[in-house]
Write a structure and sequence with these properties.
Layout (H helix, E strand, L loop, with lengths): L4 E5 L5 H11 L1 H7 L5 H4 L2 H10 L1 E7 L2 E10 L4 E9 L8 H15 L5 E7 L3 H9 L3 E7 L5 E8 L8
Parallel strand pairs: 4-5
Antiparallel strand pairs: 1-2, 2-3, 3-4, 5-7, 6-7
Length: 165
């Protein structure tokens, strides 16, 4: 009998697994842009620990292994910035990313008062764009990441989080 993937709030001891998973998962994004200095690849373990301690961070677990993660925080304008969604390459395409998003959206709206969700993804990241559109996000603009990668800004109102896939 196989184990199921569970979604839960991240704990302090998850930071190192999140850090390693993030490094693994964002290799394909770096290759897509020919840029291995993208933020998820250069973020320090201490910075991940700070995010786990202060932000809204969820993990997907398969047994004791962290196989997915997402982070969010409410910004000054009441929007929730959601980022660094990643799922282990061997488990992608099974709805884990959507489940992580749903958990983060629910917590950000219910516990932290977010009125809108906002995320950024690279303009060539078709798989990411497909997922985000499927769960109700719409492109509202573009920006350039600190690493120079052209980004698409997507948003949706907080009231729609319950309808995500």
């Amino acid at each position: 009998m196989g184990m199921s993937v569970t979604i839960s709030a991240a704990a302090e001891q998850d930071a190192e697994q999140i850090f390693r998973l993030q490094y693994l998962c964002f290799q394909s994004e770096a290759a897509l842009y020919g840029n291995y200095r993208i933020d998820p690849l250069v973020q320090s373990l201490d910075s991940v620990r700070e995010e786990v301690a202060g932000d809204c961070v969820f993990v997907a677990r398969l047994g004791d292994e962290v196989v997915g993660s997402v982070r969010g925080r409410v910004t000054e304008d009441g929007s929730a910035a959601i980022g660094k969604l990643c799922v282990h390459p061997r488990l992608q395409g099974h709805g884990i990313g959507a489940r992580l998003l749903r958990a983060a959206e629910a917590a950000l709206a219910e516990e932290r008062g977010a009125t809108r969700f906002r995320l950024f993804t690279g303009h060539r990241s078709e798989g990411n764009l497909r997922l985000y559109r499927k769960v109700g996000y719409e492109a509202v603009g573009t920006s350039k990441g600190a690493d120079g990668v052209p980004m698409i800004v997507l948003e949706k109102p907080a009231g729609t989080y319950a309808a995500t896939a």
